[in-house]
Amino acid sequence: MPREITGFSNPLIKRVRSLRDKKHRKREGLFLAEGLRILAEAEEAGFLPEMLFYARESADHPIVKRLVTATEEAGGDVIETIPDILHKLSGKENPQTVIGVYPERIVPLRALDRSQADIWIVAQSLRDPGNLGTILRTGDAVGAGGLILVDDCVDPFSVESVRASMGALFTQKIATARWPDFIAWLRSGPGQLIGTSLNTDHDYQAPRYESPAFLLVGNESQGLPPSYEKDCDILVKMPMMGKADSLNAAVATAVMAYELLNQNRRR
Amino acid sequence: MPREITGFSNPLIKRVRSLRDKKHRKREGLFLAEGLRILAEAEEAGFLPEMLFYARESADHPIVKRLVTATEEAGGDVIETIPDILHKLSGKENPQTVIGVYPERIVPLRALDRSQADIWIVAQSLRDPGNLGTILRTGDAVGAGGLILVDDCVDPFSVESVRASMGALFTQKIATARWPDFIAWLRSGPGQLIGTSLNTDHDYQAPRYESPAFLLVGNESQGLPPSYEKDCDILVKMPMMGKADSLNAAVATAVMAYELLNQNRRR
What we know:
The structure is a homodimer of 267-residue chains.
Chain A: E1 3-4, H1 11-17, H2 22-28, E2 30-34, H3 36-44, E3 51-55, H4 62-73, E4 77-81, H5 83-90, E5 98-103, E6 119-124, H6 129-141, E7 146-150, H7 159-165, H8 168-171, E8 173-177, H9 179-186, E9 192-196, E10 213-217, H10 226-231, E11 234-236, H11 249-266
Parallel strand pairs in A: 1-4, 3-4, 6-7, 6-10, 7-8, 9-10, 9-11
Antiparallel strand pairs in A: 2-5, 3-5
């Protein structure tokens, strides 16, 4: 049976709310995901929350009922609460119907099986959580195997990144690595490292890319460090017809990722 | 000569800060743009601010000097101030070096010359200012003529949208229209209306698109209303290989816009 919490000063509420801060997420190894759509996608991908909060008013919603039953059966903690507390947990104007607390899952590079997907995305020093989540969502869409975060990227488990990922956080594998370790791992097997860069005239549609392709995207304002570009097998750029010299990082990743997918579709 | 304002309670500072609110922007017809890169792009596109704020510490920066001279010559108000005030105006952790106040520019539909570009972007009930700004930036990149905002879209002149546009707000024409007026204008001349939709199996790479192409993107969570989809000449969708059924709105727009650009490049 779900237990009920309606008091703002309840220690569990305070603890869960603290997961909005990176420091507390890293200490607990837990993160927040919000909304029926994302929690349902997580369940489909095989992930149930350690804690599930839902508003009393939505207890009869079929997806809520399903999540409650599944979470209880898996030994999770299910808490019925009030919209104001969901609002406090989520920080959103319109509180979500459900909020789940999940264990963070970062896999080591050596645990990635590169043969499982034709496309892998590699992000370097990405700063914007919305971009990171959007890149995960795009990765899911193009059938990528996962996202490798190089150097100091923003936390993929931030509330904003989880929201932007729309559930892809649960379907895409996430690894972190320093650059030398990534390159050593990459070169230990097949794989073409493709850098998107402003320092080339090589059109992104000209090459016939290899598989698995590792699509490398750099920091939003700096791009890739020159030494990383040298480590790439190929540097390409998207045509830019206007005044600006670059695309948004998540947009550039998507345009390039769909080119890879389209080439694979034509094989 | 620039005048100096260093007091937080100065009425001009309060007035400019109020432009962070939509209500005040609409009352004054003015908006804020921040940062050397965006202000320099605005200048290149022929737009100088009515008011220019810069930090005393950066008075010798060559772009700041150029902007100060040009703004003064154009009769604008140039104000030297302190970083804390720039921080207050921008609301950003790291205050920008320069902040400009510009007149909002919305053009009527009838003022758009559709023959000037092969691609036009149409957004319907877009809610996220970051998406709107990113779509403007992508529009600039693919050489689009402008962005037509249909129904109740988020304000393109919000601080977040201006930031995400990276200056494209100054190079892309922006029009607003209700749907019936847009359709009437569209059908008064050549143009193919292309809807991205989940309600079709028509692959986005299958058609040979016409020019000018009007690329229609719907609301982030609802997509396009069914009656709007019926008004489209063609509905297409991007392949989705994963668990998710849709892309981020700005990403979908970019993938589709680059397909249009690529077809035009091959003509």
